Amino acid sequence: MSGAGPKLRFCPESNDLLYPKEDKERKKLVYFCRSCGYQEDAHPSEWCVYRNEVQHTSREKSVVLQDVRSDPTLPRTRDVRCPVCSHNEAVFFTSSTEQGMELFFSCLSCGHRWRDYV
Fold first, then answer.
1. Distance between CA atoms of 114 and 77, rounded to whole angstroms?
2. 26 with 75, same domain?
């Protein structure tokens, strides 16, 4: 195979796309049709599993904390008080660390960030 990616396979019965799945009993990779149930074994040259591990430095992790106040997907709370300006509204999110789960807050008024351990 040259630099081309995996080729698409189509069902000879329905002409629908064939999808990869594991045949757990035979421990083989097969392609199957979601419409009619047709399946065929994958060729051994296609038995490639990719694993992509992304390692983040501590500097990259801190970028997440930059300007989270403007993120509309993060939840907001009025049940906290900023330790710097005493404003009572903040966005919050969680992060898992070696010490356990941490809850991060960012004040909507002054931008001060603080954390609480869950």
1. 14
2. no
Q: What range does the domain containing 79 cover?
A: 58-117
Quote the strand ranges of the chain, DSSP E.
18-23, 28-33, 39-41, 76-77, 90-97, 100-107, 113-117
Task: Identify whether residues 88 and 110 lie together within a single domain.
Answer: yes
**Half-sphere exposure of residue 63: CA atoms within 13 angstroms, side-chain side:** 4
Digit-by-digit pLDDT tens for the chain (118 residues) are: 444 556 788 999 999 999 888 888 988 889 999 999 899 998 877 766 566 666 766 555 554 545 677 777 888 999 999 999 999 999 988 877 677 778 889 898 998 888 886 5
